[in-house]
Design brief:
The structure is a single chain. The protein is 22% helix and 36% strand. It has one helix and ten strands.
Length: 143
Amino acid sequence: MSMNVKKGDAVKVIAGSDKGKTGQVLAVDTKSERVVLKGDGLKTVKCFVKPRNAQEKGGIIERESSVNVSNVMILCPGCNAATRVAHKIEVDENGKKVKSRICKKCGASLDVKAAKAAKTAKKAAPKKTASKAKKTTAVAEEN
């Protein structure tokens, strides 16, 4: 099953002992449908680690626990609220189809790469039109 949560996403826990807390996704396991979260006050698990060789020490360590993916919702960077995920398919300048994740509430992009690409495309577009405007005014002045 494909999941809408990816590594690096900011999420809010909506069920369980950590309900209401926010964190960042460290790892996603698609087989067991669980995500590992890192954040202040989130539940941790104590694990015993065996020494791998004679010089290394073993012992009990604490690490982040995993949460079922159904118990988390993505935090939208635009409206800063927990939201569901919609998908939008766009065609880029090379003619390739690009699938991006969209916030259901405000329509902002949830993908970091897609958001950066959209910002650079918006910044590049006015520069091109400005250069065309200069060319047309230069041609008009010559005539």
